[in-house]
From TrEMBL, chains A, B:
Protein's UniProt name: IMP dehydrogenase
Keyword annotations of the record: Metal-binding, Zinc
Coiled-coil ranges per UniProt: none
GO MF: metal ion binding
Annotated signal sequence range: none
Source species, domain of life: Bacteria
Residues of the Alcohol dehydrogenase-like C-terminal domain: 178-303
Swiss-Prot/TrEMBL cofactor(s): Zn(2+)
Positions of the Alcohol dehydrogenase-like N-terminal domain: 25-135
Amino acid sequence: MKATLIYGAGDVRVETVPDPKLREPTDAIVRVLRACICGSDLWPYGSKPPQDHGDRIGHEFLGVVEDLGAEVTGLKPGDVVVAPFVWADNTCDFCREGLQTSCRHGGQWGSNDVDGGQGEAVRVPQASGTLVKLPVGEDSALLPSLLSLSDVFPTGHHCAVTAGVDARTTVTVIGDGAVGLSAVLAAKRLGAERIVLMGRHTARTDLGRAFGATDVVAERGDEGIERVRELTGGDGTHTVLECVGTKPAIETAFGVVRDGGTVSRVGVPQYPEVPADFGVFFRNITLTGGVAPARAYIEELLPDILDGRIEPGKVFDRTVGLDDVPDGYRAMADRDALKVLIRP
Amino acid sequence: MKATLIYGAGDVRVETVPDPKLREPTDAIVRVLRACICGSDLWPYGSKPPQDHGDRIGHEFLGVVEDLGAEVTGLKPGDVVVAPFVWADNTCDFCREGLQTSCRHGGQWGSNDVDGGQGEAVRVPQASGTLVKLPVGEDSALLPSLLSLSDVFPTGHHCAVTAGVDARTTVTVIGDGAVGLSAVLAAKRLGAERIVLMGRHTARTDLGRAFGATDVVAERGDEGIERVRELTGGDGTHTVLECVGTKPAIETAFGVVRDGGTVSRVGVPQYPEVPADFGVFFRNITLTGGVAPARAYIEELLPDILDGRIEPGKVFDRTVGLDDVPDGYRAMADRDALKVLIRP
């Protein structure tokens, strides 16, 4: 089959790799209907040292069950399924606590001989726990939004949930990438009435407004902090959803959070430490968030997509075939595309 | 009257200062029955640059109402009252949210012409909001435990509450000072069944066991982390209560917290930043806590003291008169005393 490999910064290739086969009785083989490129794929795409062998890449996909190991329950060939971006048994103590990203028998796509998501098919370990059956056909118009359940929408949701967003909280979302916009949608869905989106790309912030942002702040740094404070009577917002991962973004988060408030971060941190000095301490600021246990949220979010109440798939603004995945990476890295959908 | 002043590191003096008088109609004058020395007083005692004038010091006291401004309600002369370690109107939006430390009209003892607590009397601003009436006489045997409501016990309680301690959470408390021991007592009161206390002073950890600690770990650093992990099946505890404030202590906290868990800190931070790298992110660790809004907790904690169900005042292991306050500082700095009670 064909699959995507990364050889180093700026060097993504689509090559022929061995077809996946069942290895463990808990495995499934899934033929990929839709995959996509994640903002977090852009970190290695931007900085990975060159190497002579490619590493499989991609961790968001949905597809059709083709083959099942003897111990897999709850699935049958032909089922349309979505996979969260980390595989997990969904039965261990961490999974039962809703932290499938720390599953005792889980792992990540594209490493340790597990396929990446940006290919024609994937061997899925712990298939009973990992995969969620979707009550749709292979040609459903809902596939983009359902694919978003793999990572980007639950990541925005995790950010809002861990921040404690509800109808009583004001919200600042930092970042107008696909995760930031998903966080806006998630905050709105959780009842937030005041959502300030910090971003400067009008096409993206327009989608943010459609998703529920009530205010857009294009300024950055101290100027951006001042602007959010102006909008909130000088106080900042109860919750801040940091969806970028850079040091300036997390510093802005601490600048716009209200005393007693919470900063939640889901942008993969490109910094080793965060401010935690006496000022942060005296203001009782909480820092939470982390890698989203998407699996924990899929059943909760799915009905809203099936009913058409939300359309998180609107973050996809470009579609490529598998052969054009390298172009998709370039488009996202150049900020030409917000998020690229792949139809293998 | 006599009051305590600090002139620099190691230089605390008791001197005659002007008697406090009502200035605002919202003021009260309180004659101090009991005060004490806080672990946080030891930071300036250890490092304050010398100066030619003394600064008033002390922020924990209970006493008797002597005089009241015209606008003070709910109090009368002769009432025995306790003051939280930050004064507040208890009516603004932050106070209503339980964050009296960020009160819009509040402030700190011993600055801006407000008396410190380590003296014979105190002018109390925003007296209606700040003071809590205690249903005891001036000679009550409960005074030490009631004094602990001013700071040390609510601080331990705040640490446990913000960490989310309950019957289902395992707990590590870092530090066997008065705050750490108070955090043990608070965690036990909130239902925690497994409480690991990290501390190496046997007299103190013995009190920690009496307060509810189930395990004591004397080791520090990597060795201490390993020991706590051994005690918890390799995983660490759901909650970690960091009651010291040093960089090694907060680093230990991140080392002993379970994936998905919470580190809460109430030790005044002597570090500018905390670890927040990909490892912390992937493990979904939350950092919370901060300066405790003691006022928010006094009514909740008071009945347990009045009924004798808890005795947080056991952290006081030495009592001095006002003239001997400098000895009290020395004893605490030398770790000769755990926490020093002052009877002016």
